[in-house]
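Researcher: Structure prediction, please.
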Amino acid sequence: MVCDSVDALLFDLGNVVIEIDFNRAVAHWAAHGRCEENLIRERFRHDHAYDQYERGRIDFDTYFSTLRTNLGVDISDPYLRDGWNAILIGAMPGISDLLARAAERFPLYALTNSNPEHQKCLSDRFADVLRPFKQVFVSSEIGLRKPEPDAYRHVVDVIGVPASRILFFDDLIENVEGARACGLQAVHVRTGSDVRDTLSRLLTGPAQSRYSEPHEHASRLDSITPDSPPGAV
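Model: Predicted structure follows.
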């Protein structure tokens, strides 16, 4: 249950803010690889290379070389990239208005497991959707992935308020449980109404007293670093 003591809102991106569908990548790769979609699904995996790419430890060429080998089909980098980015569909219905309203009352942040290719695509295509966020924390930039405790601790440290006063939204239960284990309040997003109903209650309630202890990282929150998912975020 979400309590009333909330000083900052933290959002996952994939299927919370930005709609994603990995089936679009599967269909694209199967068409260009002249194979069945089920074959692509069976061969794609979140392996060590995928993990390293989302931590920013390997580059596009290295990861996509591994991906091409795993898929076992002859697809050029441009077609791999097109399929990779095809999963990013658009803003979740109603989320832009919700974020704009929430930003009038709370500072907004995002934490996404993502990679440089999706980060660039999100920044280019969805800058307006991401504009209300004071900062977007991307796994490939911070070198940490949800649900690792250090990922949440890093974000809490930068935001500069107690973990218990940060409300986190994510569509994956393991990430929600990871956040709760680190002291954050968290909402498991199953449908768009989970975000809408929670924010409506917060925004229609009385104004809350804010945690005001100064924090050494406050000056780092001025820039927006729009970022991305894999099928993720």
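Model: The beta strands are 8-11, 18-20, 88-91, 108-112, 133-138, 166-170, 185-188.
Researcher: Thanks, that helps.
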